[in-house]
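job 3f2a | input accepted
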Amino acid sequence: MNLTDRQAQILKTVIEEYTSTAEPVGSIILEKKYNLGISPATIRNEMVALTKMGFLLQPYTSAGRTPTPMALKYYVRELVKEQELSTAEEVAVKEKVWDQRFEVEKFLHQVTRVLAETTNDLAIICTSKGDVYHAGYAHILNNPEFYDIDVAREVLSLIDEFAELNEIFTKATGDETVHILVGDDLDSKWFQSLGLVFTDFRGPQLSGSLGVIGPSRLNYPQLIPVVRYFGNLVNEISQNW
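job 3f2a | predicted structure (241 res):
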């Protein structure tokens, strides 16, 4: 579905505001904060149009709106400019895992810890041998999406289940090196407000997937290059196992 330049700009600002606040976004906030150069009334009209097109949702009787999974995927595909890691950041990550590179289990445990520390999200690795590694549980509890005890319980139960995790990882299609699953993609009523960003790695002896789970309003411009780098690093190291 094609959006006009103005609609795309409004959608981008709604998503970025929602990413930072986790609160429904209204036209007045956009007009005051983002200097769009158009009136609140025009912004409102465009937000109504975006809602009818399925990009925005009005969660309750409020002027504010939240982005739908369709909007988040459009944002990642069409609107996002990735914030690449600096050389210093890449070196810092590599230094934290390098000493464990010849011991597979220790290495994968350390990679998940460093990925969680780098992203402030829940990091997971699922391997072809049926092992699951995870770290960063406390990070998810900082997000209002996880204040619902049922959502938190389901996610924490999921990360110990290889079969369920592997089924989720195999849902991704397309040629992208980094995959994004949001809301309905995760096939659970508890996961409607969640997102998963992951990539695959393949070595001669071991393959699998690594990524992070968090709210659907993940900071995709920062997160995608981080997950890609970690995947490339595990790919590189795994060639020597």
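job 3f2a | Strands lie at 56-57, 66-67, 122-127, 132-135, 178-182, 194-202, 207-215.
job 3f2a | closed
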